[in-house]
Design a protein that fits this description.
The protein contains 20 helices and eleven strands. With 526 residues, it is an alpha/beta fold. Strands 1-3-2-6-7-8-11 form a seven-stranded parallel sheet, with helices on both faces. Strands 4-5 form a two-stranded antiparallel sheet. It has a two-stranded antiparallel sheet with strand order 9-10. β7, α15 and β8 form a beta-alpha-beta unit. α10 crosses α11.
């Protein structure tokens, strides 16, 4: 017999956009009161569950999979489920940009060049030492470049410069001890070596030519080629740094007329990226060899495409949901619950479940609950939270003695986090590593600045590495975790007790991994 198709029930979800309700496909403002009135009339034995999904989820998936699939599970646990459904577009932005960037020859060549010099600086044998297909050692740089092309074309299982591929560097001691070279010296060394890398010179020459307006003659610029790159994705700032403009008539760096081309400028640009990687190794804030190199290349040359703008807009949506107005989803829900409390109608408890960016949503919910004076007991469950330690430390300060007294987090051990390849071959670690390494940052003087290796609550590495032992916000979160028993469940946890098991192997598993879901139902019943 075929499994019956699950469909979402309109009594169990609110669809918002930019934090607001309204016209279809958004839910009407009147749905808040209708759904919560129905929920309180049913008198669920274990209260109300409000589920906030993550930002990689489309509206259709949130409705047809998460809402439809989990509604009966929450009902079976004796709770009335309400899903906040919101759409970020973040997944589409990531996947589309991944495909575009991988097709850009300049990206490939920059990653190869930076990899070559990073490993030369940290290898204990004093030069490049890689492993090719089947683990065969490679000391010839041309063969190494071919192996990198095999990786980008999905013909290798692992990138040529993963940690285990650097001879003698299994414990990363050499990386941490690596000195930081002088920028001018390194740039000069890279420039001198470029004659041995004709492919790099051809590709970057084509990039320079394409960065000039179509009517500009490029044959005398020293690139060695008159061809123009068919793909030009490098950011305007990076183009300006490698190929300084002779005039500033246009604000678009891709149509500025370029000055005399020099390989030293290109070498200097690559050298700055190499040094940035080495500095992260030295401070123990790297994300492994390959991912750190990719992060630094993307941050430097492709900042417009990595998704930080979309990520910040998505976080803003979770905040806007509690903003002023007669149509903000979260604020209306909190207000309605408070009105019911005033009328003597109160749920036994409210369990807030937040997956990934849903944890950010929860932090904003708690602030709104405090402002409204919500009295219903609140229990909080984080599933692989993508919230920063900075943001959650503020929540702890504000709510530790009230809404955060009953708390549990499910997240992956770092070994699993490292194996969860989110965007292979572009990026070989988890979404949380990607967020920490590329998307998060701080507001400095009214301007957003990225912070590489931003501590996230859902990543074990920040609570186990000595590099963060003096980070006040990381330690605040860690102390909160340990202030009460059983606040943490690291996957894989088996036979750990009621509500304490998980076998999630990927970031997206936590709302469908059976062991985690059984634990979640036990928490709701408790």
């Amino acid at each position: 017999m075929a499994t019956p198709l699950l469909v979402p029930n309109k009594n169990n979800y609110l669809v918002s956009a930019n934090g607001r309700l309204g016209n279809p496909p958004q839910s009407a403002v009147t749905e808040v009161a209708r759904i919560l009135n129905q929920a309180i009339r049913q008198g669920p034995a274990n209260g109300l569950v409000i589920h906030m999904h993550g930002g990689l989820v489309s509206r259709e998936y949130a409705l047809n999979d998460i809402t439809a699939r989990l509604t009966p599970r929450y009902q079976a646990a004796g709770a009335y489920p309400l899903f906040f459904v919101w759409e970020s577009g973040f997944k589409e932005a990531l996947l589309n940009n991944k495909s575009d960037i991988l097709k850009d020859p300049a990206f490939r060549e920059l990653v190869k060049k930076v990899s070559e010099w990073v490993v030369a600086k940290v290898s204990p044998v004093g030069g490049v030492n890689f492993r090719g297909a089947g683990g065969v050692p490679i000391t010839d740089i041309d063969s190494f470049r071919q192996e990198y092309d095999r990786w980008f074309d999905n013909m290798r299982q692992a990138p040529p410069v993963e940690d285990s591929d650097i001879a003698g560097d299994g414990q990363a001691r050499m990386r941490a001890a690596a000195g930081i070279p002088d920028l001018d010296d390194l740039a000069s060394a890279i420039e001198q070596q470029l004659d041995d890398d004709p492919v790099f010179k051809r590709v970057l020459g084509q990039t320079f030519n394409a960065a000039n307006p179509p009517g500009v003659t490029v044959t005398t610029k020293g690139t060695g080629t008159t061809e123009r790159a068919k793909i030009l994705l490098i950011s305007p700032d990076a183009l300006d740094e490698m190929f300084p403009a002779t005039e500033a008539a246009s604000t678009d760096a891709r149509v500025k007329t370029r000055g005399v081309f020099t390989w030293l400028n290109v070498a200097r640009y690559a050298a700055k990226i190499v040094i940035a990687v080495l500095q992260r190794f030295h401070s123990h804030r790297d994300h492994g060899v390959y991912c750190t190199i990719v992060e630094e290349v993307l941050q430097s040359a492709y900042g417009d495409l990595i998704g930080a703008t979309v990520w910040n807009a998505m976080k803003k949506d979770t905040l806007d949901s509690f903003g002023d107005g007669t149509d903000t989803c979260g604020r209306l829900v909190v207000q309605k619950i408070r009105e019911m409390e005033n009328a003597g109608k109160q749920f036994k408890k409210i369990t807030l479940v937040g997956h990934s960016t849903g944890a950010i949503y929860i932090c904003n919910f708690l602030d709104a609950a405090r402002t409204a004076g919500l009295e219903t007991p609140i229990h909080v469950v984080f599933l692989a939270p993508a919230v920063t330690c900075q943001r959650f430390a503020r929540a702890i300060n504000d709510h530790e003695g009230t809404y955060l007294r009953d708390f549990r987090m499910f997240a992956m051990r770092d070994a699993r986090e490292q194996q969860d390849a989110m965007l292979k071959p572009l990026y070989t670690r988890s979404l949380l590593y990607f967020v920490s390494g590329l998307l998060e940052g701080n507001d400095v003087g009214g301007e957003w600045t990225s912070e590489e290796d931003m501590p996230l609550v859902g990543m074990e590495r920040f609570f186990t590495q000595a590099a963060f032992s003096n980070d006040a916000q990381v330690q605040k979160v860690w102390q909160f975790f340990n202030a009460k028993a059983n606040r943490l469940v690291w996957s894989r946890a088996a036979d750990a007790g009621v509500g304490l098991n998980s076998d999630s192997q990927h970031h997206g598993d936590f709302d469908n991994d059976e062991a985690t879901l059984i634990s979640l139902m036990d928490i709701i019943r408790g």
